[in-house]
Design a protein that fits this description.
There is one protein chain. With about 250 residues, this protein is of the alpha/beta class. The chain folds into two domains: about 10-55, no CATH class; about 80-245, Alpha-Beta Barrel (TIM Barrel), CATH 3.20.20. About 20% of the residues lie in helices and about 20% in strands. The strands form two sheets. It has a seven-stranded mixed beta sheet with strand order 5-3-4-6-7-8-9. Strand 6, helix 4 (about 160-170) and strand 7 form a beta-alpha-beta unit. The longest helix has 12 residues, at about 160-170. It is globular, with a radius of gyration of 20 Å. Bound molecules: iron/sulfur cluster. Iron/sulfur cluster binds next to loops.
Length: about 250
């Protein structure tokens, strides 16, 4: 915990910001007490999407559970209820650790030479599908699976719907792997709240474009050697996921 503006005197103390870092999850909680709105906006720009968790007043037992949004409530307010989807398939053992359900989105602006799935490049080769129906389908089969992988196409070409998917699936305690042809550094540089949300709530990111000259001995789950396993949450989350030991 660290307080960058801690000082004596009640007036100053009211303006202090306290940062609580959670290294395991990558979350930062900022305790704000009467700070000017400009400081809060600036923080949001630096830290990504803001979720208000309210002030530390005693809990009202009659409202217990009220902070959990109902099943059909969207986390992101824009129209992110639909995603361009190519297909869903189950029982994959090649798209991330364990046995997984896979959500394959359509549309990719990266167009790596030699891509294995050129049929997913055009959005219109898939269809716009409601995220609620995708989550329903994933949940039907969840007992047989160790987690869910989202790949494409390029998932981050639809950052809002991707974050919405992550939000809804994570609420069911599913282990989430996301593939991207971008590097994580490039995604962070975009400073988009929806992208930041995915990077702080998914469990495993496999990043980087497919490079044909690097495809030999790429290792499990990867198409070429430049691609990286990046653990966004602590290794071993979920069942049978010991292979995440390769994470950086
Ligand atoms: S990012 Fe993925 S889907 Fe897009 S071209 Fe590269 S390998 Fe193919």
């Amino acid at each position: 915990m660290l307080s960058p503006s801690r000082s004596h005197g009640s007036k100053q103390m009211n303006r202090e910001l306290v940062f609580v870092l959670e290294p395991d999850s990558g979350r930062v909680t900022v305790e704000i007490s009467r700070s000017p709105s400009s400081a809060i906006e600036e923080l949001q720009g630096d830290l990504g999407i803001r979720v208000n968790v309210n002030c530390a007043k005693p809990a009202d037992p009659s409202k217990r559970g009220a902070s959990r949004a109902p099943e059909n409530t969207r986390f992101f307010p824009d129209d992110n209820s639909m995603v361009w989807l190519y297909r869903i398939y189950h029982d994959s053992v090649t798209d991330g650790p364990g046995r997984r359900s896979v959500i394959q989105v359509s549309g990719c602006s990266i167009r790596c030479q030699g891509c294995y799935v050129p049929e997913t490049h055009q959005r219109e080769n898939g269809s716009r599908v409601s995220i609620a129906s995708i989550v329903d389908e994933i949940l039907k089969d969840r007992e047989r699976h160790d987690g869910v992988t989202i790949l494409g196409g390029e998932p981050f070409d639809q950052p809002g719907p991707l974050a919405e998917l992550i939000y809804r699936l994570k609420r069911h305690g599913l282990h989430l792997t996301v593939y991207t042809g971008y590097t994580m550094e490039t995604l962070i540089e975009r400073k988009q709240p929806a992208i930041d949300y995915t990077l702080t709530h998914a469990d495993l990111l496999i990043d980087g474009p497919f490079v044909t000259s690097l495809n030999r001995n790429a290792g499990e789950y990867r198409g070429s050697r430049n691609q990286r396993f990046i653990c966004l949450t602590k290794p071993g989350v979920g069942r049978h996921l010991g292979r995440e030991k390769n994470c950086i």
